[in-house]
Every structure is written in C-alpha cells, then in structure tokens.
Write a structure and sequence with these properties.
single chain, 14 helices, 2 domains, alpha/beta, Rossmann fold, about 15% strand, six-stranded parallel sheet, 10 strands
Length: about 325
C-alpha cells in the first residue's frame, strides 16, 4: 500500500487469521449434532466439528452475521479502506464455509433466507423457522383502565434502537394528543453517554413529566396500560417486542427494518426509519381512529399468537434434532 506501512497490514492480517488457525487446530467435544447460532467463528467451529466427526451440522442465523459485521466495519474509524476490505472478506468467507458445510441452514424470516442464498447458501438446504414467545402468558394479560393515552418504547437505550426518534415523535404526538404519556421501558446502563443525551433531549423538547424512564422491568407489567408500542430501530432481525405487543393486544407503529413488514402485515403501521414525523402520524392515527385500532389489535393478536408460538418453535427444532441425530442416542432427550 503506497501510504500505509506494512507493519499495520501485518497486525491486521494477524488479528484476522490467528483466531482461524486456533479454531482449525481445536478438538471439538463429541456430540450427536452440532448447532451454531451464527456464521463467523462459531460457524467455522461447526464446520470443523462436522469435518472431524462426520456428525450433522445445523446453522441458525438470527440476523445475517456477515452483513452485521460489514455494517460495523464500514462505520468504524479504526480502519482504512484496504483494512476494512480485509475484515469484510474474512467474515463473508467464513459465512460461505459455514453455508457449504451445514446440513441445514435456518433463518428467522423469508428476507434473511433470500440473503443467505444470495451470499452462497444452497437454497435446498435453507429453511425458515420464526422466533417464538410464550403466547399464553401474553394472552392472559388483562387491560387496566387509565385516563392517559400511553405510548411505549421497549428496548435498550442504545443508538441502534434510535430512541431519539421516539422522543422527537413524542413531541409531535403531544401537540395533537394532549393526554399522551410516553414510557421508555428498558435498561439504561449499556451506553451512559447516550442515555444522558436522551435525558437532555427530553428536557430540550419540554416533555417534562410526560416521559417516564422505567429502567429494566418486567414488560408484562406495562402492556396492560399501553395504548401503542413504537419500534423506532435502525436495524432489527425479527423483533420480539413487536410480536409480544401484538399478542398482548397493543397496536404497533414500527420502522421498516428486518421482518417488521411481514410480522405486522395489515395489522399495524410501518414507517421509514429516522422520520419522527411519520412515526408520530402513526401514533396519532391509532389515538384518533378507534375502529382502526380495534381491527389491528384483534386480527393481529389472533394471527401472531398462531404463527409465533414458542411451543411451535421448540417442536420444529425437536423434529430437526431427531431427524438428523442418532435416534437411539437422542431418545433420552425426547
């Protein structure tokens, strides 16, 4: 490289390749089936396990791991162009190794399955198994009477969730729905600097006591008083918050990320990321159109409870393990 010294290239090469050599030299414990929950180094270890033992290797990706790493690398200020290319090539190469070796490749939703195939996964070995939640525990939640119109964000207070978008939309909603109150439900200690920025934004927008930061709590305590749940995220895979809200009978306004459109379909409002005016318009629609809110709530609850049942997800994996594993060895687990 005409500008960057060779020593920098060397340390980047070492950082990317030493973990690979260690994994390739490792001896894996004996098992009937090996199951990795991402590509990358975990997927490589799964491929090594299959090569050493001849046992089946199953791969499940909640997100597209190589794509997620690419996004992080592109945003990093630590690396220059060729260094970024090196790191990205490593992760996409590891994904192809895992896809080539896996007997079955599972995605959470159709869009991610298409991305896996685009990145080299054989389509005949790709399958979709959606996330699941304990449906019954959310169906049993009973609404509690309240005088305010309560809008909730549920998640970590971190930039990728774009909580600032939610707070800015809150200012717009409050102008149109004076009785609105906003609950930010979730842990605050992952990024203290970001949380401080959220508090300053609340103060600058003069939202005062209309915004409540709950900290980490049991979300089931809050669903009975929420009238709308918002998901303002920049990136998601298959957000459980949206599914939980639907089954709990709370309508959702969410950004167009991950599997949100397929989850909500016609039973919620999908808006572009980073546009608080659009998110606010969705909340206001639910606040002022009771018939629309009721239709979304009833139909969405019924559909989500059928599709995203944790028991169905567990049954799907049980069937996979039994079909790929040693039947005699697995009988005790069945």
């Amino acid at each position: 490289h005409p500008i960057t010294p060779f020593i920098k290239y060397y340390w980047n090469w070492r950082a990317t390749h030493i973990p690979l050599f260690k994994i390739l030299q490792s001896t894996v414990p004996e098992a009937d089936i090996y199951h990795a929950v991402s590509t990358g180094y975990a997927g490589l270890l799964g491929a090594v396990a299959k090569a050493q033992t001849g046992r089946p290797f199953i791969l499940t990706e909640h997100g597209i791991y190589a794509k997620e790493r690419e996004m992080e690398i592109n945003q990093s200020e630590q690396y220059v162009g060729y260094e970024k290319r090196m790191w990205k090539n490593i992760f996409y190469s590891l994904a192809r190794i895992a896809y080539d070796s896996a007997d079955l490749i599972i995605a959470l939703f159709r869009r991610n399955r298409a991305l896996q195939i685009q990145n080299g996964a054989p389509s005949e070995r790709c399958r979709v198994i959606p996330n699941g939640i304990p449906v019954q525990s959310f169906l049993e939640l009973e609404r509690r009477p309240h005088e305010t119109f309560n809008v909730g964000f549920i998640g970590r207070m971190v930039p990728i969730k774009d909580v600032k978008n939610f707070i800015m939309s809150a200012r717009i909603v409050l102008n149109a729905v004076p009785k609105a109150r906003f609950y930010l439900i979730g842990p605050q200690d992952e990024r203290n600097d970001y949380f401080e920025e959220l508090q300053i934004l609340v103060e600058n927008l003069e939202l005062g006591d209309r915004v409540i930061f709950t900290g980490k709590v049991d979300v089931k305590q809050y669903f009975p008083i929420l009238d709308v749940v918002c998901l303002p995220s920049i990136k998601e895979a298959q957000p459980l918050t949206v599914i939980e809200a639907m089954v709990a009978g709370v309508p959702v306004v969410a950004t167009r990320v991950g599997d949100v459109e397929d989850i909500l379909q016609q039973d919620g409002i999908v808006v572009p990321p980073k546009q608080p005016d659009k998110m606010a318009a969705g909340v206001i629609k639910f606040a002022k159109d009771a018939a629309f809110r009721k239709r979304c709530t009833q139909h969405g609850r019924e559909r989500a409870s059928q599709i995203y049942d944790l028991n169905k997800m567990i049954q799907s994996y049980d069937e996979i393990y039994m079909s790929y594993g040693d039947q005699e060895a697995l009988k005790w687990q069945a």
